[in-house]
Amino acid sequence: MPKLTAADTRAAVDQFMAALDHPCKAEIETLRRAILAVDPAIAEGVKWNAPSWRTTDYFATTHLRSKVGLGLILHLGAKARALPAGGLAIDDPIGLLKWLGKDRAQVEFSTAADLQAKLPALQALLKQWIRHV
What we know:
Layout: H1 10-19, H2 25-36, E1 43-47, E2 50-54, E3 58-63, E4 70-74, E5 98-101, E6 104-109, H3 112-129
Antiparallel strand pairs: 1-2, 2-3, 3-4, 4-6, 5-6
Helix pairs in contact: 2-3
């Protein structure tokens, strides 16, 4: 894990969110709570000018400029890393993941109702994803 800074704290995300002017602000707060509830090892911070989550390294970042409501980018940190043979084994039964590369995927939520409907599947995906971080 890289050295933590003041931006790598819940307080930094709280401050970021207080100043954020975004049409999906309420949904971002819902997403924050849902991601943190996946595993007690998950912490949050502000990375790439957006709320982000980490265990040993950052693995998810909100995509605040998504053209479809709200997006979440899943990754394995800032630097490329070796992947298991065959790539990441992530069970995605409802097809949430839009793969952007071998180690990056995006999940999009078009509305607050869409976010609520997809949260259980997202949390199941995240439990798998963080095993690769």
